[in-house]
């Protein structure tokens, strides 16, 4: 067998040859950084089975974790109209799942190329210095041949600054409930929610979609998602009252695991605020749906409800150590220009009630923003230029399935550098927040049906594989990470390193380092190279080291 150390940006497909993969054996990181690399392995074509036991030998081995990078079926790899900056566009098995090592690291080695993904997390406990990390594969069969490679990791005597970027990937509590077969917000459901939210926070998600009511997202007109509603509603003798106890439990969980912001679910339906979200209530003793697709968004009945609900919601969150100041709100996701009138009517209902609180919505029409409809727009990365040119303050960005040409995204079919390059772009343009919709969406398009994410990685031909979720539901009520999740987190860590370098040298210096010998970076123009990102981080790291 052969083994080779490769970077975390190297995508290893089963039908590739290890000899064609670029070696990567030295790098640096900061004391509080999660550092990632990989080791590829491959056997010769033979009738004889090879088994090897994997082990890690290092002074810091207790801080090193390894996963098996396993393969998932991809039917929908890319849109027909996408560009050429893809690994492949054909159906097949693609690397994605980070599966925990089993059987004490015993691995079957065949002629297919496979890899292990490595994470080093020293938790700030290891002194600066260079630490060799030796990865060893010992063949079970006599004479127990050992194959070893050593990665040299320099830990720099500095820490990355706190993440400033606000980052949300939509967190679907109903998908967890459906997959694991729990009751809504039961103890078991909350246990699963917390496990998935912990992983989200670990990898940079600091804003969590909070379903005060079942999110009005990705649902066909007239259809319903599984009810996941944190706020209890009662209507008695024509008056509303609210039970916030489950919301309080949610806030306690978020505080415990490090969630910084609460993204309150949209008050109106997607794509233009046509109707009210599904809201369940006990009305004169009967539990039933009181609002939904049949409810006019701008109608008097729903407006009356919101005028009763929003002040009490804010007052309750305020009572939780000022948690109201951590709340962000939505009107409707992805409204278009022709829906402006309906959006404005819906916004008018809540604008005064939410005065002083941030309202954000994903949209890509600059004229929609310039009309005054949205004060904090979240444009798609392929439509962000006019927002940048007009110096829109506190600008966010997002991408989803249709951002498939020129810009960054994290489809399984894209090279990993196209995932990670977003960090340099968000840094250069001082982007305040980033939204990517699918953290754990396990339904098909518009939620007609629930899916097995291990079998359908594209939402049943909804979007290119890798768009609808970043974690898989593991068998132990905990998520299994995708390597795409970790690559994106490396982009966030890049931003923090660039910010630290800026503190020491100024932003012009950092931009000069980023753009030396290349065209100026935009959201559509950037180096199509993993080496660029790896080398840039080393330049940034060494510049910081020289100043400390």
Q: Tell me the fraction of residues in β-strands, as a range.
A: 25-35%
Query: How many E-type strands?
Result: 24
| Secondary-structure-derived class | alpha/beta
Q: Could you describe the largest sheet, including whether it forms a barrel?
A: 5 strands, antiparallel
Helicity level, as a percent range?
25-40%
Low-confidence stretches: none
Mean pLDDT: 96
- Euclidean distance between termini CA atoms: 43 Å
Question: How would you write the strand order of the largest sheet?
Answer: 1-3-8-5-6
Rg to the nearest angstrom?
Answer: 24 Å
Shape: globular
Compute the number of helices.
Answer: 12
Give a summary of the structure in a few sentences.
It is built from twelve helices and 24 strands. It is an alpha/beta fold and 548 residues long.
Question: What descriptive keywords fit this protein?
Answer:
548 residues; five-stranded mixed β-sheet; 24 strands
Structure characterization notes:
The chain is an alpha/beta fold and 548 residues long. 26% of the residues lie in helices and 25% in strands. A hairpin with a 2-residue loop joins β16 and β17 (286-291). α10 (483-505) packs across α11 (507-515). It is globular, with a radius of gyration of 24 Å. The two termini are 43 Å apart.
Fold topology:
Elements: E1 2-7, E2 26-30, E3 34-42, E4 50-58, E5 64-74, E6 92-100, E7 106-109, E8 114-121, E9 129-139, E10 146-156, E11 166-169, H1 173-180, H2 187-202, E12 207-210, E13 232-236, E14 239-243, H3 245-257, E15 261-264, E16 279-283, E17 286-291, H4 300-319, E18 327-328, H5 340-350, E19 360-362, H6 366-370, E20 376-378, H7 385-389, E21 396-399, H8 416-420, H9 422-428, E22 433-436, E23 471-473, E24 479-481, H10 483-505, H11 507-515, H12 530-547
Parallel strand pairs: 2-10, 11-22, 12-15, 13-16, 15-18, 19-20, 21-22
Antiparallel strand pairs: 1-3, 3-8, 4-7, 4-9, 5-6, 5-8, 9-10, 13-14, 16-17, 23-24
């Amino acid at each position: 067998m052969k083994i080779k150390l490769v970077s975390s940006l190297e995508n290893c497909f089963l039908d590739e040859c290890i000899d064609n993969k670029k070696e990567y054996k030295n790098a640096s990181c900061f004391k509080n950084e999660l550092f990632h690399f990989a080791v590829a392995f491959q056997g010769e074509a033979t009738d004889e089975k090879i088994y090897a036991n994997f082990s890690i030998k290092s002074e810091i081995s207790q801080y090193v974790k390894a996963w098996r990078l396993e393969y998932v079926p991809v039917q929908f790899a890319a849109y027909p109209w996408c560009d050429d900056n893809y690994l492949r566009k054909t159906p097949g098995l693609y690397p994605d799942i980070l599966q925990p090592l089993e059987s004490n690291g015993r691995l079957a080695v065949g002629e297919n190329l496979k890899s292990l993904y490595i994470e080093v997390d020293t938790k700030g406990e290891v002194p600066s210095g260079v630490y060799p990390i030796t990865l060893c594969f010992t063949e079970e069969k006599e004479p127990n041949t050992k194959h070893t490679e050593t990665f040299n990791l320099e830990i720099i005597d500095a820490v990355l600054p706190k993440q400033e970027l606000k980052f949300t990937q939509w967190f679907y509590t109903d998908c967890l409930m459906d997959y694991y077969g729990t009751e809504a917000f039961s103890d078991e459901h909350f246990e699963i929610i917390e496990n998935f939210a912990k992983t989200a926070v670990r990898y940079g998600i600091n804003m969590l979609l909070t379903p005060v009511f079942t999110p009005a997202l990705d649902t066909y007109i007239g259809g319903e998602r599984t009810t996941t509603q944190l706020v209890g509603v009662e209507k008695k003798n024509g008056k509303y009252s609210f039970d916030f106890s489950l919301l309080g439990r949610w806030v306690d969980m978020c505080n415990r695991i490090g969630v910084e912001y609460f993204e309150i679910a949209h008050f109106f339906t997607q794509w233009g605020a046509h109707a009210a979200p599904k809201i369940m209530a006990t009305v004169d003793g009967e539990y039933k749906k009181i609002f939904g697709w049949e409810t006019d968004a701008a109608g008097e009945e729903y407006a009356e409800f919101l005028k009763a609900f929003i002040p009490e919601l804010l007052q309750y969150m305020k009572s939780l150590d000022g948690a109201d100041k951590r709340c962000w709100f939505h009107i409707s996701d992805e409204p278009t220009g022709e829906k402006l009138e309906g959006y404005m009517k819906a916004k008018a209902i809540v604008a005064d009630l939410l005065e002083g609180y941030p309202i954000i919505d994903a949209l890509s029409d600059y004229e929609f923003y310039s009309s005054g409809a949205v004060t904090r727009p979240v444009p798609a990365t392929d439509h962000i230029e006019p927002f940048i040119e007009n110096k829109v303050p506190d600008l966010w960005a997002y991408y989803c399935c249709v951002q498939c040409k020129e810009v960054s995204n994290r489809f399984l079919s894209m090279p990993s550098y196209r995932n990670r390059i977003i960090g340099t772009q968000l840094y250069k343009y001082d982007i305040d927040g980033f939204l990517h919709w699918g953290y754990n969406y396990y339904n098909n398009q518009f939620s007609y049906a629930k899916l097995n994410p291990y079998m359908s990685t594209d939402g049943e031909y909804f979007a290119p594989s890798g768009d609808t979720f970043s974690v898989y539901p593991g068998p132990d009520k905990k998520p299994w990470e995708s390597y795409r999740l970790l690559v994106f987190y490396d982009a966030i860590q890049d931003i923090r390193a660039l910010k630290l370098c800026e503190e020491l040298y100024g932003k012009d210096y950092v931009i000069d380092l980023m753009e030396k010998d290349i065209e100026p970076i935009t959201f559509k123009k950037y180096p199509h190279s993993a080496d660029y990102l790896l080398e840039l981080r080393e330049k940034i790291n060494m510049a910081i080291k020289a100043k400390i």
